Amino acid sequence: MKVKGNIYEIYGKIQRVYLQYAVGLVFGSLCCLGCHSSSLKQVEYDSKPTPLNNMVKEVVLGISVQGRPITCNIFGNGDDVVLIIASIHGNETRGTPIIRHLGLYLENNPELLNNRQVLLIPMANPDGMILGTRYNANGIDLNRNFPAANFSRGRRHGEFTLSEPESRAIYKTIQTYNPSRIVSIHQPKNCIDYDGPSQVLAKFMADCCNLYVRRIGGQSGSLGSYAGISINIPIITVELPKSASQLNSEDLWHKYGRMLLAAITYPKPPPENIK
Fold it and tell me: E strands of 32-115, at which residues?
């Protein structure tokens, strides 16, 4: 997975061309059917990958059910590894533009990467985003498909753990990079949830935004149950409010960007000014 050289440039070009074609095809087809275009424009805008420079690597972690790349932008190369994921549920997409802004901020503030590596997965469920559904293209809730002790098989959970290419991509990333902490961005419960040894981190992040800490509890086969309980990695589930869907990317960043930076700089405070 950690291949070096110009292959990242090739992957980046393939991803950008593929996503532009796929989103354009879906947008054009639905417009012909007379569908409302505002939500499609949001998906198209949020699906643009973070611009890369020579301090950032982009890797393809896997391919979705419908053939879309699941990419990860990797910043830095230190022992303190932070993994941040958005849109594992395809109808909870407002974490994607926040992660895009976070990537740009890290590029412009490389001092935050000293002795640290940050992994950003902006679209964990690209098919679900295009289709506007919680599930992947097989109808599986990816956040119920991980090999946690509480996994329960079913029509929406999968017949076995890691049955889906998207959940396997995230699982392999965790196994390969062994993150020190994980953040997964969801909607719409308006709180910061946590699993595993991460209560202090949850409070630390909540102090940087208007979300409060609320322990929801590990769900069957969830990423939180797997990472936090089964393998003891601190994991935060950020539940943005429903109203976040009405905010543009700039407003989302100004409202929640410092909270994500807190997850990166922990236990040191994040920068005050994030413009």
Answer: 56-63, 69-76, 80-86
User: What is the tally of structural domains in the chain?
Assistant: 1
pLDDT tens digit sequence for 23-64 = 343 333 333 333 333 333 344 334 344 445 557 899 999 999
Is pTM, for the whole model, over 0.85?
no
Q: CA-CA distance, 32 to 73, in Å (whole number)?
A: 35
Q: Is residue 224 within 8 Å of residue 85, measured between CB atoms?
A: no
CA distances from 176 to 2, 79, 114, 184, 227 (A): 9, 13, 21, 18, 14
CATH no. for residue 72? 3.40.630.10
* Domain around 27: 7-265
Share the mean pLDDT of the chain: 86
Minimal CA–CA distance to 42: which of 65, 26, 55?
A: 26
197 neighbors 231 (Cβ within 8 angstroms): no
Does 270 reside within a domain? no
Amino acid at 90: G
pLDDT in tens, 65-106: 999 999 999 999 999 999 999 999 999 999 999 999 999 999
Residue 274 inside a domain? The answer is: no
Q: And the tokens for 33? A: 């059917």
Q: What is the DSSP pairing of strand 189-195 with strand 181-186?
A: unpaired
Measure the CA–CA gap between 7 and 218, rounded to whole angstroms: 38
pLDDT of 157 strictly over 70: yes
Q: How far apart are CA 95 and CA 190, in angstroms?
A: 13
Per the domain annotation, does 67 fall within a domain?
Answer: yes
